[in-house]
Amino acid sequence: MDGSPMLEPDPSGKLVGRFWLDQAAAVERLAKFKEAAAEAGDVKSMEVRQIPLSEVYLQLIVGGNEAQLGGQLRIEPLPREVRNAQQILAGAYLGPSGTVPLFFCSTLVLESRGISFVPAFLREKDLLETLKKAGGTGARTEITTLQNVAEKLGEQAKSGTDVGWRHIGLPTPGVFCLRVGATVECSRPEAALGQAAAASPGCGVSCSPHLHLPGTASLSLGWLTKIQVDPGMPSSHAPQSLGFLSSYAALELARSADSSLSWAVLAPSATLASGAFLSWLRLALGFHTLAQVSVGHLLGMCTAAAWRWLYAKLLMPALAADPGGPAQVCLHAATGAAVFLFSIKALTNWRPCIASSSKLNSLLFSYFVCVMFL
């Protein structure tokens, strides 16, 4: 019958219908099937068919009756992603053979049609690219499995209670199966599955995951309505790179300005305005909320003012009173140590800094701290 999925015996002799997440793997398997069929003189017509994962996974792969389906249905995981997941888990047990890993970040929240959910990706690179576009490249990749998600969903459905799982989305077009063509007569119940799957267009799956943290900022991104990332309160960029540096530079310009009143006012004002504008860009790009940017920038300004006051009132008089004395020696030693430690950090972390903006920001902040001592 048209649309019936291809079943084959596994090493134990059980009939198995396989679904591939990679179209190339399904096409390769189809070629082997056709070659074997040609050698046996079989004239079956077969094709690779893309079907929605949401149409088969929970209903048939997890909850399907093998006797009614004529065999067991399985999803073949992506070998490379299994290796990536095992590396992230650092030797921890992922699951038995056939376990499909899912990559997600609990602080990354998508919103579509008014529904917020944590996206889980079948490929690690898709998660990393999404995080990069959302400005959250320093976030930690977390691992769950498709089987774990389905198990929790089943427990929640049986108990009728919310066990703390929220929506999870898998932005994947679907899975690929080998489908028997119209020239084959088949009376097995799995034929109905093939017909139903063949009639459904490819789409993503929506089910529920664990770990949901509400996002706070949004960024438009193509096929998604919103991307939300919660960078925390306050914004680390504002106090570290923007509020502190612009305020400290403005205070230095005001102190070292000549007798020209216009220069003494305009230069620090322009510096503060530049820092405020850069902080506002974090808000305009959707990486932070107004509260996060405001609190972070204000914290940076206060820190710069406090440091400048302590430097002028305590450190400078001590150095002037004893030139070449212990205080000056300690200051130079501390500055040299700071520069030395910064150099070590820069040399040992240059690869992660290139890959992660958060690590680069931390490195630059360490550099600016060294500059202040100089």
UniProtKB/TrEMBL annotation:
It is found in: Plastid, Chloroplast. Its main location: plastid. It holds the Pfam family Tic22. It comes from the Eukaryota. The keyword Cell membrane does not apply. GO terms for biological process: protein transport. Keywords: Chloroplast, Plastid. GO terms for cellular component: chloroplast. Signal peptide: none annotated. This is Dolichyldiphosphatase. It comes from Polarella glacialis (Dinoflagellate). The lineage of its organism: Eukaryota, Sar, Alveolata, Dinophyceae, Suessiales.
